[in-house]
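User: Structure please.
Assistant: Input sequence and predicted structure:
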Amino acid sequence: MKKVIFLITGLIMFDCRIASSQNADHIEGGHFLKRIEYNIIIRGWTEADNSYNLDGKSILDRILFGRINSPIEFVFEDSPEGDDEVSAFRIVRNSQTDSYQLEIMRMPDLEKVYNAIKVLSTKVNETLISPELIQMLSLEGRALLDEHNKEVYRIRLSDDLFKPYRPESKTFQISNEFAEKLHNKIVTLIDNFKAAGIPPIIFDGYRVTFRIVVENEVWSLSIHMPQKNALIMANLCRQIIEDADVNKLNETKYIALLDDLRL
């Protein structure tokens, strides 16, 4: 009897795993990070001290987008071994005119991009050591460590370090319908995104990042080698960059694709 119960239980668990995999958006694929945070955080005692929450942004994100979180941000990052590029766009809203602009950026020299990231990483990373090792430092050593980490924190909040590496951008006026439909679809994509299985070890391939502001939150989804709906959305976002770069934006085409996309 126990064997029968064990067999039935095993079959139920197996069926559940199959169902879970079938409903997943990312099955035994590359690593991903799904993150939801406050969009604005307090840095001091007054409202003027508040700033955008950039804690979840990589060095590359800071190079591209500076100190703000835009309503929509997208980044395509090829692998160091790839022959493509880093490309990105963001959509910003003008609250005074209730209108939207698309800003695209391209960084074709991957070697230059990754060298810049290596240089910047030495300047924006804190020096973290265990409490046990801190106890072994002299008072002067602790003071130097504290001063270093305070300087790193100050640099992170500033745009001065990242701005020299920022590529020139192209800006286009776009319709509210296109901007808002794209925003809503990315909201649904991130909200519904689920993974199944165990990720394999992948040494190459590209990564995409979707980031949006939803009321008082900033949502982001970064995926190494996207699948299914995430891949469809990534390809659409890359097509927007390609078309904009040659001044051939076709909002009617994008809106139709977004309407057909069932997330």
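Residues 1-20 have pLDDT under 50 and may be disordered.
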